[in-house]
Amino acid sequence: MNTYRIEAPVRSFSGESVGVQFTKGTGFVNDSTKEGRAAVEYFRRQGYGVAPSDGKTDEERAQELVTGAPAQRDPLTPGEPFDPAKAKAEDVLAHLDQADLDEATRVLDAEADGKKRSTILGQRDEILAAKQAPADTKGAGA
Question: What is the 3-state secondary structure (H, E, C) of 64-92?
Answer without folding.
Answer: HHHHCCHHHHCCCCCCCCCCHHHCCHHHH
